[in-house]
Design goal:
TIM Barrel, 7 helices, globular
Length: 199
């Protein structure tokens, strides 16, 4: 597993690229997030075709490199290798079918967890970081039942892997997240396009 001291306190999960708009606009918004201090990015673009995702990921990686930020791809492992990104983010579904760690040491493996079973599976495969969600009510997953800080704390205690609280997070939640055992927070809207909210 990675040294948690190398992981920043915030992780940006990108929104879906707007349909019909050039990737350059998306990358420009990302650049503003990086200029505001984001240093860990998960590229989540499920609306794109596989070839489109590779094109965007290549542009996003170049942008991240300029700001010394790490890029995780929410994509198949072969795409991570092809783009030469810093690691992979496994959805909970992909996490649960892993029989071993999908990337070698030196590359990051992030995993999405929503319950104890998934956290324990992340332990088994040797993930480097986790997102545990949804902690609070969120505009992007309105039907999901929030965990709340108490249940979040219980899940964090099941692992020594650095955990990012996800769901309804802003940088103003960072102190609460750390008090509950998190390494940091992950967010979409509050960290996107230079709109990083002060704590």
């Amino acid at each position: 597993m990675t040294d948690s001291t190398n992981l920043p306190p915030t992780c940006l999960v990108t929104p879906e690229p707007p349909a019909g708009k050039p990737f350059a606009d998306f990358v420009a918004d990302l650049e503003r997030s990086l200029e505001a201090g984001v240093r860990l990015v998960q590229l989540r673009a499920k609306s794109l075709t596989a070839p489109e995702y590779v094109v965007l990921a290549t542009q996003v990686l170049a942008c991240c490199r300029r700001h010394h930020a790490k890029l995780l791809l929410n994509a198949p492992i072969d795409v991570v290798h092809a783009v030469q990104a810093d690691g992979v983010h496994l959805t909970s579904t992909r996490l649960m079918v892993c029989v071993s760690r999908p990337l070698p040491p030196g590359l990051l493996v992030s995993a999405a967890c929503h319950d104890a079973h998934q956290v324990l599976q992340a332990n088994r495969i040797g993930a480097d970081l986790l997102t545990v969600s949804p902690v609070l009510p969120t505009a992007t997953h309105t039907t999901a039942e929030p965990l709340g800080w108490l249940r979040f704390r219980e899940l964090v205690k099941l692992t020594s892997i650095p955990v990012y609280a996800l769901g309804g997070m802003t940088t103003g939640c960072l102190a609460d997240a750390r008090e509950a055992g998190a390494h940091g927070i992950a967010a979409i809207r509050s960290l996107w396009a230079g709109t990083v909210e002060s704590s």
